[in-house]
Description:
The complex is a heterodimer. Helices cover 81% and strands 0% of the residues of chain A. Chain A is mainly α. The model of chain A has no long low-confidence stretch (mean pLDDT 97). Chain B has one domain (3-152). Chain B is mainly α. Chain B has helices at 3-10, 12-16, 21-47, 56-59, 63-83, 85-89, 92-121, 130-152. The interface between A and B is medium-sized, with 31 and 33 residues.
Amino acid sequence: xxxxxxxxxxxxxxxxxxxxxxxxxxxxxxxxxxxxxxxxxxxxxxxxxxxxxxxxxxxxxxxxxxxxxxxxxxxxxxxxxxxxxxxxxxxxxxxxxxxxxxxxxxxxxxxxxxxxxxxxxxxxxxxxxxxxxxxxxxxxxxxxxxxxxxxxxx
Amino acid sequence: xxxxxxxxxxxxxxxxxxxxxxxxxxxxxxxxxxxxxxxxxxxxxxxxxxxxxxxxxxxxxxxxxxxxxxxxxxxxxxxxxxxxxxxxxxxxxxxxxxxxxxxxxxxxxxxxxxxxxxxxxxxxxxxxxxxxxxxxxxxxxxxxxxxxxxxxxxxxxxx
Lengths: 154, 159
């Protein structure tokens, strides 16, 4: 961690006038895209918004990945600036656990959506386990937002 | 006493008395923005010609989520403002954010009243008319602008 904090990147994030604001802004845009879209997908899988076809969902997840990409990059850069502090913060570690969980859930759901959505549109039932995963995913992203915001305070 | 002084003195304590109010409001503000932008991304991307598998009428089913996010953020936003009105009033980031908020609202009203009925009536898979595409593009640009300037408030301008 100390090594990360000593890198030129970390120094730039800490001292540059534009660095931190730009990274934070990119991070909030990425969050809106990732969590915003995955929330809609999760709600649909769980059974809401019945007029949105299941077959549309795997392509929506594709858009969400752009948000995640922005946040992995901006998040990594922000992390280096205070690596030790973040790495020892329980709130931050919980956030990262939730993000990881949400990402794994989305990565699992996307191929299943691609393969099975046409069956569901034709009338087959969405498996209960998948609906449950969608709800858990939603809760994990919600927790990620809460713990992300509270990292600065706790 | 100016109006800002009055607000700070009489309404400010609502937000500022308890130390945990502010972080809770911020957290709600972040959740609200994900609801607002998440719903709008699906609706507006469809208008722009992407995500054609989503019928435009079906995408409008997401509007209650968009409005709920807007209400949450307007409410928490007002509570932020009354907590520290002098700081926000002079901040260029906040001013630009509010300008975009109003313009985005007008754009949304225009869409709801004039364009949505026409777009909804189109058969599935249709090309979206140019005016609806422009409204969709403006919607995304302006609401993301609201997000960006909001995030920059602590960093730009005075206060």
